[in-house]
Design a protein that fits this description.
four-stranded antiparallel sheet, seven-stranded antiparallel sheet, alpha+beta, Pnp Oxidase, Chain A
Length: about 180
């Protein structure tokens, strides 16, 4: 579905800035691995973080990777099961992941990741200790080879199915925050 492809940076940035979870894929010698992770976009770079003990993240450093995000906006129910679909916005980034070793850039990346989840939280929370920083691997992936895919609208029924006696339409889906729970 090439028509769904979007290459405009504003579309790519908007999707990356709204989505909260990314999947980082890397090909390891014993097979491919995919890891869900939090992330943040800062200008034309995406930062992800994970434990230095995590093999996928360690081996992703310096390797070709694929990062993918998807926002599901609705279930599209057609009159034919064959034409059921989903409304979505997604971004795929291909590139080389690089371990971030500069302390200033690492702090910027980690703060940006925290801010994505809860604006204002990075300044309010206790900063990471040196031990915590040593146990955290931060990877940067430049937004060089990147594209978005977007599907909107209702079902695309075949003409002969339009009279089929079943509802067709879109069930909208939204990510919604609940009431905070104190622990």
């Amino acid at each position: 579905m090439a028509a769904r492809g979007k290459y405009d940076r504003s579309v790519v940035h908007a999707i990356l800035d709204e989505c909260l979870v990314a999947h980082l894929a890397v090909a390891l010698p014993d097979g491919p691995r995919v890891m869900p992770t939090t992330f943040a976009r800062v200008d034309e770079v995406v930062y992800v973080h994970g434990s230095v003990a995590n093999r996928t993240f360690r081996e992703a450093s310096g390797a070709a990777v694929c990062l993918e995000v998807t926002i599901l906006d609705g279930l599209v129910l057609a009159r034919s099961a064959f034409h059921h679909s989903m409304n979505f916005r997604s971004v795929v980034v291909y590139g080389t992941a690089t371990a971030v070793t500069d302390p200033t850039e690492r702090r910027l990346a980690l703060d940006a990741i925290v801010e994505r989840a809860a604006p204002g939280r990075a300044a309010a929370a206790r900063p990471p200790t040196e031990s915590e920083l040593r146990s955290t691997l931060v990877l940067s992936i430049p937004l060089i080879e990147v594209s978005a895919k977007v599907r909107t609208g209702g079902p695309i029924d075949d003409e002969e199915d339009l009279s089929w006696p079943i509802w067709a339409g879109v069930i909208p889906l939204h990510l919604e925050s609940g009431e905070p729970l104190t622990f």
